[in-house]
Write a structure and sequence with these properties.
Elements: E1 28-32, H1 37-42, E2 47-54, E3 57-64, E4 67-73, H2 78-100, E5 107-112, E6 115-116, E7 125-128, E8 130-131, H3 152-165, E9 174-175, H4 178-184, E10 189-191, E11 193-195, H5 216-222, E12 225-227, E13 230-232, E14 236-238, H6 241-251, E15 254-260, E16 263-264, E17 269-270, H7 274-288
Parallel strand pairs: 1-4, 1-5, 5-15, 6-16, 7-10, 11-14
Antiparallel strand pairs: 2-3, 3-4, 6-14, 7-15, 8-9, 12-13, 16-17
This protein binds 1-O-phosphono-alpha-D-ribofuranose (R1P) and uracil.
1-O-phosphono-alpha-D-ribofuranose binds at residues 32-34, 76, 112-114, 199, 238-240.
């Protein structure tokens, strides 16, 4: 029995922040950061059966070519991903209990629009599969160390990243879902996303304040880890993927982060047709799911 202070329901029975009832959680969930982008996805649907808005969480539920999707905005940052993954899971689990008598895994897909600092033209589509930021130091509270079960390779990369960037913590390094990548990623560029707890300093931008490490971007660009699986390099910045991949692994969901590259940090360019790039990625993703 979970106490009402832990699993908080609104008077209509919907879950606290997302404002969703069990039936609003489809087997496949598409998440976007920008609340305005939910309609950019659902305008492709054949029908929309439900819409709601609560804070930055906008949800549309509908059908695309006969398949039911929930499309949901998260707002920016991994703190919101904690809310979305926990609340969508709890609401969805309840639906599955009612429908099937037992919970089972759902696939959750993620569409984001981050910035690449790799040397490729702004505007190129990409799809990335590693990410991370986890504080492993600090006060030892019971929840400070997650039982994430990183693979050997993930731990190796995390340790080397920590050393080479001089970080006071080891980042998470978590691989996305291989099957979803095969299903959705054909023809897209594969890469490794660095999830940052901010857009400016944490992504090496300096507008009014100097960076503590002036060579931060160069250090990230030059990072290499060679293993039997191939060469690991960092590809792009965004602000949520690590949260999805870590919580997806812990909760047992298939998760893939798709990133439209709109800002090229190596050349200093922002794509002129960013909206069209994002739209093309949305359509391609829907067609493949
Ligand atoms: O456009 P969305 O999907 O929000 O994604 C990216 O854009 C936001 C920053 O501008 C961050 O959320 C980042 O992850
Ligand atoms: O540069 C960018 C662009 C979008 N989102 C990010 O997190 N960074």
């Amino acid at each position: 029995m979970i106490q009402s202070s832990e699993l908080i329901l609104n008077p209509d029975g919907s879950i606290y922040h997302l404002n969703l009832l069990p039936d609003h959680i489809s087997d496949t969930i598409l998440t976007v950061g920008d609340p305005g982008r939910v309609a950019q996805v659902s305008r492709h649907f054949d029908s929309i059966e439900f819409e709601t808005t609560h804070r930055e969480f906008v949800t549309h539920v509908g059908y695309y070519r006969g398949k039911r999707f929930t499309v949901l905005s998260t707002g920016m940052g991994t703190d919101n991903i904690d809310i979305v993954m926990n609340e969508a899971r709890c609401a969805g689990e309840h639906r599955l209990h009612v429908a099937h008598g037992a919970p089972r895994s759902r696939a959750a897909q993620v569409a984001h629009h981050p910035a690449g600092h790799q040397r490729q033209p702004a505007g190129r589509r990409a799809h990335w599969h590693h990410a991370g930021h986890r504080a492993r130091r600090g006060p030892r509270q019971p929840h400070a160390v997650l039982p994430l079960m990183e693979t050997g390779l993930e731990t190796e990369i995390a340790t080397e990243l920590q050393q080479s960037l001089g970080l006071p913590f080891a980042p998470y390094v978590v691989r996305g879902d291989d099957l979803l990548r095969e299903q959705v990623g054909a023809g897209m560029v594969m890469g490794n996303t660095l999830t940052c707890p901010g857009f400016y300093g944490p992504q090496g931008r300096s507008l009014r304040l100097d960076l503590r490490q002036p060579d931060y971007i160069a250090r990230l660009q030059n990072f290499r880890h060679q293993s039997a699986e191939g060469l690991f390099r960092l590809s792009n910045f965004e602000m949520e993927t690590a949260g999805y991949y870590s919580l997806g692994r812990l909760l047992g969901h298939e998760v893939l982060s798709l990133n439209a590259i709109v800002a090229n940090r190596a050349t200093g360019e922002f794509a002129e047709n960013a909206g069209a790039i994002v739209d093309a990625m949305i359509e391609r993703t829907l067609q493949r799911l």
